[in-house]
Batch of 4 targets.
Target 1
Amino acid sequence: MTITTQENVNIKPDTKGGQNNKEGKKAKHVFEVSDLNLWYGSKQALYEVNMKVPENQVTAIIGPSGCGKSTYLKTLNRMVEMVPSVKTSGSIKYKGKEIFSESFGVEDLRTKVGMVFQKPNPFPKSIYDNVAYGPRIHGIKKKAQLDQIVEKSLRGAAIWDEVKDRLNEKAFGLSGGQQQRICIARALAIEPDVILMDEPTSALDPISTAKVEELVQELKKEYSIIIVTHNMQQAARISDKTAFFLNGDMIEFTDTDELFSNPSDKRTEDYITGRFG
Ligand SMILES: Nc1ncnc2c1ncn2[C@@H]1O[C@H](COP(=O)(O)OP(=O)(O)OP(=O)(O)O)[C@@H](O)[C@H]1O
Ligand SMILES: [Mg+2]
């Protein structure tokens, strides 16, 4: 298959403390979403969404409750299809390849596009087994190799030092913020390219939230991140691009600084200034 759909875009110089070393370089898109519609039965939840998601950046999705943020996120790894009544139209290309085509196996897609949920959801297993779960499913059996993946993933999720002496204890025994980072480690262990995060800090205290936010900045060096958040300060702090959704429409998608300082749509302005509804 020829990959012809990726365009290059100019990335603005980094304004967020030097984490992004993309200055002067060209970036690609991990996802190119075109005219995406989605229905739950007869109820339409997404309307003609178009979006090019940049690689190695953080893309935030904001908007009021029920506007389709989670639906959209779960469409990107086809998890939304677990709801039997779901129908979609349009196109989503992941690195140039159509994810709705038969030739793109859904398991393959979910290996590339990992997900972290709002509520930390560790399995009722040890910390070690939570992180080793995905690699084991993918056929990795050697203890030494699993040890290595578990350590690397826990380090990647900035929780290694806190758990390295208790890897065989149940993950449920950790705090909520620690459990969320275990879930991030579990997502990293399958070596995805993209990490989808659906309100990953909404159940966390401010200190754990700050840790996850720092982690997101770190992770974007290696991964592309799409994060749903109700917290607009959080979107402004950690994301490079922001999309505003309303009633299933994507109203505006642009550089985060631009969206929050100079929104082009009145509805975006009303929402970000709290004058909504
Ligand atoms: N399984 C489902 N079956 C039918 N309708 C659904 C289902 N899941 C979501 N919806 C509907 O789709 C619309 C979008 O829901 P979604 O969960 O994507 O919103 P959201 O923006 O994530 O909201 P929140 O901020 O509250 O999490 C809503 O009207 C919702 O009721
Ligand atoms: Mg949601």
Target 2
Amino acid sequence: MYVVLITGGTSGIGRALVSEYAGRGATVVTCGRDTRALDDLRAEGVDSLQVDLADHAGIRRLLHHVRKTYGRLDTLVNCAATHHAFDPAHPAADGPLLDISVDLLAPAHLSLGALPLLTASPSPVIVNVTSIAGVVPKGRAPGYSAGKAGLIAFTDALRHALQGSGVKVVDLMPPPIETPMAAYLNVGKTAPGDFARLAVDRIERGDQVIRFGRNRWAGALHRIATRLAALLVR
Ligand SMILES: NC(=O)c1ccc[n+]([C@@H]2O[C@H](COP(=O)([O-])OP(=O)(O)OC[C@H]3O[C@@H](n4cnc5c(N)ncnc54)[C@H](OP(=O)(O)O)[C@@H]3O)[C@@H](O)[C@H]2O)c1
């Protein structure tokens, strides 16, 4: 048995990753809030829990479920995210703060909480789904940009911290994908299923920093700048 926990399996990229991993023979556990989408997943035999990732008790319940039901976890994919457009005319804090909570705090909580199970796996992997907005912050979404910037830093730092432990820590940065979250983007987009197949191929190959198209170059510049800065301060 190979157990994969994927957050955000009710829509978009998460949904496609659920199908991709299940198609490769994994036992998949997922979560979301959308009751109908969760029922559809259950009808397909996917172990699906209703969990609000902004609620830390919900995250603990999710981890407890995996521990009790399977006693193991091989791959954790932190895919769920929220992306609230910011309106300076109505600068309510709820949207940006929720983005930071779901896009950064929840993946950090899950990554750290799942470590005891993951380190017992023969081939443990943590995949954090990041975004170019974490490298080039977007004025339309300060909370999302901050959450993703934090997630890129967290992923990089965790990879260093876990060096030698056998745990692979992957930063998976999608290009524009046809999903509800990217509906506002007026650019060419990749189908979620095509992206999921390429992404899981790269993860299974052992890649830990996965970028596509133009994100590859922006990401490379960002990493070079980070490495150079490290020479000065480390
Ligand atoms: N689409 C793109 O072009 C693109 C580009 C770069 C990065 N990404 C990243 O790819 C990932 C997936 O995005 P997507 O485009 O597939 O978005 P999406 O279709 O909007 O899906 C978002 C998922 O997150 C879940 N979610 C949101 N808030 C949640 C909460 N509080 N608790 C539990 N689940 C929650 C949603 O489930 P419920 O609605 O059921 O709660 C849904 O399954 C995100 O990390 C995003 O930042 C996407």
Target 3
Amino acid sequence: MEVLLLNGSPHAHGCTARALEEMKKEFAENGVEVTELQVGNNPVRGCIACGSCARSPEHHCVFSDDVTNQVIDAAQRADGLVVGSPVYYASPNGALAAVLDRTFYAAGRELGFKPAASICSARRAGTTATLEAINKYFLMSNMLVVGSTYWAMVHGTTPEEVDQDKEGLQTLRNLARNMTWTMDCLNAGEGIGFDKPFVERSAKTNFVR
Ligand SMILES: Cc1cc2nc3c(=O)[nH]c(=O)nc-3n(C[C@H](O)[C@H](O)[C@H](O)COP(=O)(O)O)c2cc1C
């Protein structure tokens, strides 16, 4: 079992990293392998809606000069996905949003029926709006959004402040266990013939027609 942890923050060792670390420890204790990717602080392109990804056998984006195609490959390989974001103006940070736009436009269909979770870190507010924005990628891609004992957020401007958010960290540990359990159940179900459901896609009606 393998889970991809994607950190959207420009800070490799910031608050979002501290939050993901809490989940990583819990996954490790439960025998789940973890792959980590950082959006980091290099330039990231936005989606240019060129449609090249639809013709890519690997479901890759036309731009290979940032982390997006690595995210696409790792997410397709993984059994589950966790996306972590700092809160920027009550939203996911812009670079992460650009990576998610391109990842899901190119490969969202390949991620169906994988458990997914969003987590965020904020100084103070805008957390649930940020989680909702990230969950929207999952929820229109047939992914299974996993919950916890509270919304999966921590508070702080330094990792040391996040350490003090005991309930936030507890929520993340519970989330990691819930994801592990969900992945185990799906795996066991497939083993006894519970295949993924058929997905209808023939109807595509725009609002103007
Ligand atoms: C451009 C920018 C916008 C921010 N907007 C918010 C905000 O809307 N609400 C909030 O509580 N914190 C906001 N913050 C603070 C960060 O969300 C917070 O410090 C977060 O824990 C940083 O995580 P990181 O260390 O992983 O980057 C903002 C920070 C920046 C740089």
Target 4
Amino acid sequence: MSVSNLTLNNGVTMPALGLGVFQTPPEETSQAVEAALRVGYRHIDTAAAYGNEREVGAAIARSGLARSDIFIETKIWISDYGYEQTLHGFDKSAAKLGIEQIDLLILHQALPSAFDKTLDAYRALETLLADGKVRAIGVSNFMPEHIEQLLAAAKVVPTVNQIEVHPYFQQRKLQELNKQHDILTQAWSPIGGITFYRGGNKSTLEDPVIVEIARLHGKSAAQVMLAWHLQEGRSVIPKSVKPARIAENFDVFDFTLSAEQIAQIDALDTGMRGGPEPEAITLEAYGRAIPEA
Ligand SMILES: NC(=O)c1ccc[n+]([C@@H]2O[C@H](COP(=O)([O-])OP(=O)(O)OC[C@H]3O[C@@H](n4cnc5c(N)ncnc54)[C@H](OP(=O)(O)O)[C@@H]3O)[C@@H](O)[C@H]2O)c1
């Protein structure tokens, strides 16, 4: 397959596959981003809450690539929600990244018990978009009711909803709602990291169905999962700190899964969420200050 770019609902083009850097320690971030840029990644997904925006920016600055060749996505943490706070959240992220304009800025989580604050944060994203400080805006971990509440109040439809999607947790109804509104589903934990890095007992990487499909294509289980997402039209942002795996996760454009293989992976959904329950996200439980630049 050759699809490597997706067009967002506002016409902005985004590489379908990017490098994620959640849990990548700051001291390992620059080398991971450099390794990714060397093998052809042109999209990096970070977040204010990951504490490594500065190191992402440093690697991009050192790469020698034109700024316009790299798509940079980051997220506003819940502690910076509110209209003025979120505008300042942009300033902090842009300064740490060392850039004037962010390609895609998204709200990291809904705050269901303080949805007004979430809406104020989104209004700030709309202002940043109108001012040309960001090229696209979006959300993450928004469940159907959060999307509906947002759309009832917002002027700009989010371009993406970044949510947990891997073979064991596919959120089909939410994906369908995203599609109805022309919101791109971007899969976090696309190779199912959340099924194993917290000590879970059933890893998508060892799933017999996926392993067998991988064997048939002479590819790895991770590559098969990434191809599955891409063929179903999702954006993916696999994370690794290891150069060999970073290269492996990008080497997914030279094979195509059959409709039957896609259906086999679709059938692996367990309906069990790996990440935190979006309704349980509160400032009290998850709030923490994002440092100044
Ligand atoms: N919006 C949100 O709330 C949210 C939540 C979670 C994640 N995310 C984003 O999504 C990105 C990816 O999600 P994720 O980090 O949760 O999970 P993931 O990308 O599905 O999996 C990452 C895990 O898989 C390992 N790995 C990577 N490539 C591999 C390969 N080819 N073979 C075997 N193991 C491999 C990594 O270890 P090594 O590093 O040791 O290779 C790491 O433990 C994050 O980095 C972040 O950008 C967003």
